[in-house]
């Protein structure tokens, strides 16, 4: 595959040659690539390296996205999913109601439930625990990937538990990994501006900065997946 390199980009040309010959890039090369806007060349090179290492293999998991509630106290600027309690269209499903929904939509290829939702302050932390328990009991062989870091923070606030205790309770109920998202913006200024004006992450560094225990380390995975069915069709969190 030929890569079109603008002649003036001598350093890019040198990087292309290094990548193709398997030579390790230097720190300066990395900085140059980071600052470059030549995304086509970088993308093509990445694709070449990937194909060399992995051939045509692609790995993914087929999952099913479930949203137990759309009632949310946060007000993220980009969100068109959340509702206030009592709004038209607001819902909070019980475990049995969610199982009824899953029964109607699941198929044998689904290996994971991907669960996120609103930060609903009208139900206790136990509700979120029971939601996971109900699914795990009915579908023991489907992995439970549930809740963003933002939800873990919310649970800690409504329960009075520490992050670790929240995670331990959720894991006892069947939680096996966390969903990605929720803790990408670590600046209070930008979080307030772009996301929720509600206070979040009083101690976010305790959550994201280090694996505080094997418990946390196990679930600090961010994954991607493909949804086959969703409760609302919305993308959230
Ligand atoms: S994105 Fe999630 S946390 Fe933010 S308002 Fe919507 S439902 Fe709530």
Task: Give structural notes.
It is elongated, with a radius of gyration of 22 Å. The chain has helices at residues 10-21, 27-35, 39-54, 95-105, 125-138, 149-159, 163-173, 188-194, 204-208, 214-219; strands at 62-67, 112-116, 143-146, 226-227. It has a 4-stranded parallel beta sheet, covered by helices on one side. It has 10 helices and 4 strands. Helix 4 (95-105) packs parallel to helix 5 (125-138) and helix 6 (149-159) packs across helix 7. By secondary structure, it is α/β, with parallel strands linked by helices. It folds into 2 domains: 10-54, no CATH class; 62-227, Aldolase class I (TIM Barrel, Alpha-Beta Barrel), CATH 3.20.20.70.
Descriptors for this entry?
single chain; 237 residues; alpha/beta; TIM Barrel; 2 domains; 43% helix; 7% strand; binds iron/sulfur cluster
Major pleated sheet: 4 strands, parallel
Q: Could you report the average pLDDT, rounded to the nearest whole number?
A: 82
CATH architecture field of the largest domain: Alpha-Beta Barrel
Bound molecules: iron/sulfur cluster
Class by helix and strand content? Answer: alpha/beta
CATH third-tier fold name of the largest domain: TIM Barrel
Q: What's the number of structural domains?
A: 2
Highest-level CATH class of the largest domain? Alpha Beta
Query: Which strand order spans the largest sheet, edge to edge or round the barrel?
Result: 3-2-1-4
Oligomer category: single chain
Overall shape = elongated
Order of helices and strands: HHHEHEHEHHHHHE
Uncertain stretches: 209-217, 219-237
Fraction of residues in H or I helices:
40-55%
Q: Treating each run of at least 4 consecutive H or I residues as one helix, how many helices? A: 10
Q: What is the total tally of β strands? A: 4
Strand content: 5-15%
| Cα-based radius of gyration, to the nearest Å | 22 Å
Query: What's the N-to-C terminus distance?
Result: 39 Å
Can you identify the CATH superfamily of the largest domain?
Aldolase class I
């Amino acid at each position: 595959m030929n890569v079109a390199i603008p002649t003036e980009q001598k350093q890019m040309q040198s990087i292309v040659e290094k990548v193709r010959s398997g030579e390790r890039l230097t720190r300066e090369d990395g900085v140059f690539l980071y600052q470059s806007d030549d995304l086509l060349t970088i993308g093509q090179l990445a694709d070449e390296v990937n194909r060399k290492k992995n051939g045509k293999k692609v790995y993914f998991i087929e999952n099913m996205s479930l949203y137990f509630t759309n009632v949310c106290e946060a007000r993220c600027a980009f969100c068109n999913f959340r509702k206030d309690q009592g709004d038209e269209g607001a819902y909070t499903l019980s475990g049995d109601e969610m199982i009824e929904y899953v029964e109607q939509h699941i198929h044998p290829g689904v290996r994971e439930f991907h669960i996120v939702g609103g930060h609903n302050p009208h139900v206790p932390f136990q509700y979120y625990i029971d939601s996971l328990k109900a699914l795990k009991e009915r579908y023991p062989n489907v992995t439970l990937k549930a809740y963003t870091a933002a939800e873990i923070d919310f649970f800690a606030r409504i329960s009075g538990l520490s992050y670790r205790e929240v995670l331990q309770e959720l894991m006892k109920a069947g939680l096996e990994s966390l969903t990605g998202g929720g803790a990408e913006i670590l600046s209070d200024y930008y979080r307030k501006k772009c996301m929720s004006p509600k206070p979040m992450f009083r101690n976010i560094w305790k959550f994201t900065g280090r694996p505080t225990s094997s418990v946390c380390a196990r679930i600090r995975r961010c994954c991607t997946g493909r949804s086959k069915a969703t409760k609302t069709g919305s993308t959230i969190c």
